[in-house]
Amino acid sequence: MFRMKHSHILPQAFCILFLTLVLLVQARHHSHTKHKHSHSHKSSKTSPPSSPRNENCNNGSGIFDVRTFGAIGDGKTDDTESFKMAWDTACQSESAVNVILVPQGFSFLTQSTIFTGPCQGGMVLKVDGTLMPPDGPESWPENNSRHQWLVFYRINGMSLEGGGLIDGRGEKWWDLPCKPHKGPHGTTLPGPCDSPIAIRFFMSSNLTVQGLRIKNSPQFHFRFDGCKNVHIESIYITAPKQSPNTDGIHIENTDDVKIYNSVISNGDDCVSIGSGCYDVDVKNITCGPGHGISIGSLGNHNSRACVSNITVRDSFIKVTDNGVRIKTWQGGSGSVSGVTFSNIHMVSVRNPIIIDQFYCLTKDCTNKTSAVSVSNIIYTNIKGTYDIRSPPMRFACSDSVPCTNLTLSDIELLPAQGDIVHDPFCWNAYGDLETLTIPPVACLLEGTPQSVIDFDITRC
């Protein structure tokens, strides 16, 4: 009985032992599989791919050297695309201020280009080297604009600065037969005439131009159209006296402008203020040779022009065709008002003080009844010498719309040659003398004419 019981237990024990061995094997296999899975998961983990190194980025410094974008700077290679890439990269940067560097010791040749905003942050084009366009009309590509070279469009917050040079290379453009000095007696000859403005700002705001030298533009050196809050400081503009239409700084439809502490010599106006300008302050300008500091010309092609709140002060004008000038075409409309010329020293200047409402570039301009109104103009503390080929003061006002409220004080203008003091010229000009003047202005009319009372000057 005992043996039978014992024999029954043995198969059960064997079954238990077998099952235990099977479970141990499975457990070891599961453990090994789990370990392999864990190892596989760990090795499959990858960090986010790092951005490929961009040789064109600024590495967070906010400075974009045009050479980093491929510019050569040998004065011969076309570096236009490199400048475009530098601008686009800087413009898209989220840095507060982004500096495009034109480095010292290099000369960069670029074609006609438009640099467009708006940009993410403030922009600085720092010209420490030399920047130049193609050399003359023959080198200018046919498909490129001949009206302008470098244009900055829709920029809010930009500074153009540096200790370098912008060389407009205008000599060959000035020699086009259409230019005024090429024909007899200052006339023009047939032929193509488009010549590029060197630097143009268009529909932009909060602009600064400072410290630069710019020379020999084919046409205007700087032009601002439709801009707001412009500060020009300590720039040097130069072109030969006979270079045609090389205005230093021209503004049009632009307000809140400060032009300070600069030297301008050229073949046209040092500063010219066009239609649609107001709140303009011009201070400490050395002007000449050239055509002086001008408001206008205004009212061309019977257009409406509005200019107000202009101040020109503390300046030096030498050997120019005009001193401080307001020039309008017959047939225009609108007004010039609220202008002050003060503390200005003249040396051998033709027409030191001039209002010309009969402005005309040819001999065949016809008389017209409408005109841009000129009123509330102050001349104070203007002294120096004048070129005796023209009278020291000339107020040539419209027959139908006289100049009114002209105020003169502390004027002393003596001839640069000889001892004879010439009389001023007045035509239909009304105003007051607050002090004695040299020479006396006996031709200025008193009061306000009925034609002005009836004239609607509220159009501006």
Characterization of this structure:
The chain is mainly beta. It has a 19-stranded parallel β-sheet that branches. The chain is elongated. The N and C termini lie far apart (133 Å).
- Morphology call: elongated
Helix fraction by DSSP (H/I, runs of at least 4): 10-25%
Mean pLDDT: 87
Unreliable parts: 1-56
**End-to-end Cα distance:** 133 Å
Total number of beta strands: 30
Strand content: 35-45%
- Most strands sheet: 19 strands, parallel
> Class by helix and strand content?
mainly beta
From the alpha carbons, calculate the radius of gyration and give it in angstroms: 37 Å
Secondary-structure map with pairings?
Elements: H1 2-44, E1 63-65, E2 74-78, H2 80-92, E3 97-102, E4 107-109, E5 113-116, E6 122-127, E7 130-132, E8 148-153, E9 156-161, E10 165-167, H3 171-174, E11 197-202, E12 205-210, E13 213-215, E14 222-225, E15 228-233, E16 236-238, E17 249-252, E18 255-265, E19 271-273, E20 277-287, E21 293-298, E22 304-318, E23 324-328, E24 333-349, E25 353-356, E26 373-386, E27 393-396, E28 403-415, E29 425-427, E30 429-433, H4 450-454
Parallel strand pairs: 1-3, 2-4, 3-6, 4-7, 5-8, 6-9, 7-10, 8-11, 9-12, 10-13, 11-14, 12-15, 13-16, 14-17, 15-18, 16-18, 17-19, 18-20, 19-21, 20-22, 21-23, 22-24, 23-25, 24-26, 25-27, 26-28, 27-29, 28-30
Which key terms come to mind for this protein?
30 strands, 19-stranded parallel β-sheet, 460 residues, single chain, 11-stranded parallel β-sheet, mainly beta, disordered N terminus
